[in-house]
Amino acid sequence: MTDHQDVSLDWMSTDQENLRPPTDLRPEIPHPARMYDYYLGGKDNFPADREAAEKVLALGPLVRISAQANRAFLQRAVRELASEHGIRQFLDIGTGIPTAGNTHEIAQQVHPDAKVAYLDNDPIVLVHSRALLAAAGTGNATVVQADLRDPAAILDDPDVRKVIDFDQPVGLLLFAVLHFIDDSDDPKGIVRTLLDALPSGSFLAVSHATGDFSAPDQAAKGPAVYRAASAQLTMRSREQVLGFFDGLELLEPGVVTAPNWRPDEAPQATDAETAIWAGVARKP
Ligand SMILES: C[S@@+](CC[C@H](N)C(=O)[O-])C[C@H]1O[C@@H](n2cnc3c(N)ncnc32)[C@H](O)[C@@H]1O
User: Fold this and answer.
1) Which terminus of the chain is more exposed, N or C, with fewer CB under 10 A?
2) What are the pLDDT digits (tens) for 107-120?
3) Is the CB of 204 under 6 A from ligand 1?
């Protein structure tokens, strides 16, 4: 755990009215982002979140394996973009609670002045994120409430534009968020709109839940868990995930399961356990 996460818990666990955050975190109601934080071993979660997460984990360890594999991919991809491709600014959409090993921490290990705009549409995530960043005292990262389904608003947002220079290459990060976008909202069109605003030499990194490795009855279970948590999950095939990279130059090894994207060590989890497609590509 990092220091700033410990600091943030001081106000999360306090009963003192004047230390309460401006938005009610509704700690008594399990929240998917805080459950995800718990799967990852983070500390930004409450007893109700832990209880609900343990119920999911009791069904099998896959949720935790998959969350950890996704997060490890995020970290390898950001490090790769910063160190090998000189990317110094990142648009991280669907950021979740910035738990251990956040985008700005990884990027700033390579470029101390690296900039990150974190965007999420969930007000509860925003409250947690702002507190974490404030406690960490980082001026080069910002948190903005925005919906991926409205890419034009993201591109026009003055707070995003304060941090991101759209004349310079950008790392567009869509980790574990596109599966929350229904086909009727045209996720491919959304990605295209965002990419169109970025200069040549920018990158797109995507991770995405898939049912490709599950029997049909199992594949239905993931969406069911999320329906219960009031979020819709759309699993997509490798072919569909490849479609997000149309017109871009995929980095080796292409779209593979998350643990197999440039692993630091031999992957422990199987494709079926992870069930997440991952890829990174350059805009020519
Ligand atoms: C599973 S978390 C992923 C967190 C982080 N990107 C990662 O990969 O570790 C998904 C996040 O996407 C956010 N999200 C879902 N739908 C969204 C939308 N339409 N616009 C912006 N964020 C969204 C959720 O609030 C949640 O915080």
Assistant:
1) C
2) 999 999 999 999 99
3) no
